[in-house]
Amino acid sequence: MRYKNPYYRRVRGSSTLLICCGYCKTDIALYQKLGKGTLLRMYVDRIIRSSVDLAGNPGALFCPNCQKQLATRVTLKKKNKEAYVMTRGVFNARQVRRI
Ligand SMILES: [Zn+2]
Asked: 78 CA distance to ligand 1 centroid (A)?
């Protein structure tokens, strides 16, 4: 993963997930997840690193290898947060050790 996320903020008590493209298995992002359950969206400030440059605030996440769309960016007004809503069934997430 080439890019450090400029908006990254460390979250205490989170687990680290490695998100991969479900089509070609390319690594997409390292993400700090809070709580259990399925990953539905990634808050931008919880992404540690990614293979997509987040500095330009892309409106969607595409796999840099196979170009499939994996997520769409939204603004959550209640929380005043930016997030990527993951498209169901097109990515894999597994827990990894914090690095
Ligand atoms: Zn891919």
From this structure: 32
